[in-house]
Amino acid sequence: MKRILITGGAGFLGSHLSERLLKEGHEVICLDNFYTGRRSNVINLISNPMFEILRHDICFPLYVEVDEIFNLACPASPIHYQFDPVQTTKTSVHGAINVLGLAKRVKAKIFQASTSEVYGDPLVHPQPESYWGNVNPVGFRSCYDEGKRCAETLFFDYYRQHNLRIKVARIFNTYGPHMHPDDGRVVSNFIMQALQGKSLTVYGDGSQTRSFCYVDDLIDGFIKLMGSSDTLTGPVNLGNPDEFTILELAEKVIKLTKSKSRIIRKTLPEDDPTQRQPDIKLAKKALKWKPTVKLEDGLKETITYFRKLINE
Ligand code: NAD
Ligand code: UDP
User: Fold this and answer.
1) Which of 55, 169, 271, 309 matches a 20 to 30 Å C-alpha distance to 65?
2) Where in the sequence is the domain holding 52, given as residue range(s)?
């Protein structure tokens, strides 16, 4: 049994990870400032004596005695991370410094939720971990992309300079229950729009691609990476390599919800990556991990979740 700190623990991924770690018999401290996270995501865990919520902003130092840290705190949806870009960079950079400092003091193993955004609008396809990326340093997405890149740098410098045990995961688009209905990401937007009979908003011509991973698969990857040998620092890509255009996704959502909604076009946001697909050879080999949930099956689960949320 370990005592594990999850920053961003009340968010979409953090709440699933909290549940999984409690099931495995660990004690979980869920830290969150509730910027995009919600208490309702962890409501079923609150009565568990092994679960504790800590309201805190990781831009400020903290001290807790823990064995492991999962650093997930950071808004992940473009509309949320662009709402207060300075705070987004601070969360990634000051946040990393604070959690790495904590890990150093208490000798905890520490995991960073990095992102496929470190590859920017990639010129190499699919993206292996060895690719250094094509990132605009001064655009609207830069607060997130460069913040996450700097956090990776800090993780590797703490590893080299202070012998910290680090694990860096580069997460590709993940979806599932507990996503915020107003999150603004494409899967939640399309499902909410389809269920409410509103038009599905495809940005640009919808030919841009993404590869969607169901949350349960991703959490398996987190657990395997955290439990792997100390020599495996990452970065390791975690995502589902099945690639779809955004238009294909819209059509699938309409079909699965049996919605009468139409598809409308909206302006493509600046610096929106044109294609994205993880190369997961490393995760397959080193972690014996690969996603198993097909997009249609994961979407069905997610639709059921949002349908219930709307009817509550
Ligand atoms: P989310 O927005 O649901 O969760 C982020 C959580 O962090 C929220 O609960 C939020 O309130 C909290 N938070 C934000 N700033 C904070 C701060 N300064 N101090 C404390 N808590 C703070 O997003 P998510 O999808 O669960 O993403 C979790 C992590 O995974 C993020 O770091 C994100 O960058 C990374 N990631 C997610 C995806 C994805 O597809 N879901 C892809 C790539 C990377
Ligand atoms: N997108 C869209 N309609 C929406 C929301 C998003 O067409 O209502 C597109 C967006 O332009 C991007 C893709 O879907 O090309 C994925 O967007 P998301 O915000 O989910 O994540 P990203 O991978 O861009 O960070």
Assistant:
1) 169
2) 3-175+214-241+277-292
Q: Residue 257: inside a domain, yes or no?
A: no
Q: Are 233 and 159 in contact (CB under 8 A)?
A: yes
pLDDT profile of the chain (312 residues), mean per 10? 98 98 98 96 97 98 97 96 97 98 98 97 95 96 98 98 98 97 95 97 96 98 98 98 97 97 96 93 98 98 96 86
Query: How many structural domains are present in the chain?
Result: 1
* pLDDT in the model for residue 312: 82
Residue 192 inside a domain? The answer is: no
Would residue 307 count as lying in a domain? Answer: no
Contact between residue 271 and residue 141 where contact means Cβ atoms under 8 Å apart: yes
Whether 181 is in the pocket of ligand 2, judged by its Cβ within 6 Å, is no
Atom of ligand 1 nearest to the CA of 179: 3
Domain containing residue 48: CATH number? 3.40.50.720
183-189, long-range: CB within 8 Å, 24+ apart, which pairs? 183/12, 183/36, 183/77, 183/79, 183/80, 184/77, 184/78, 184/79, 184/80, 185/76, 185/77, 185/78, 186/210, 186/246, 186/249, 187/212, 187/249, 187/253, 187/299, 187/302, 188/302, 188/306
Antiparallel, parallel or unpaired: β 200-203 and 68-71 = unpaired
Instruction: Give the ligand 2 atom nearest the CA of 208.
Output: 15
Contacts of 309 (CB under 8 A, 6+ apart): 181
Identify which ligand lies nearest to the alpha carbon of 217: 1
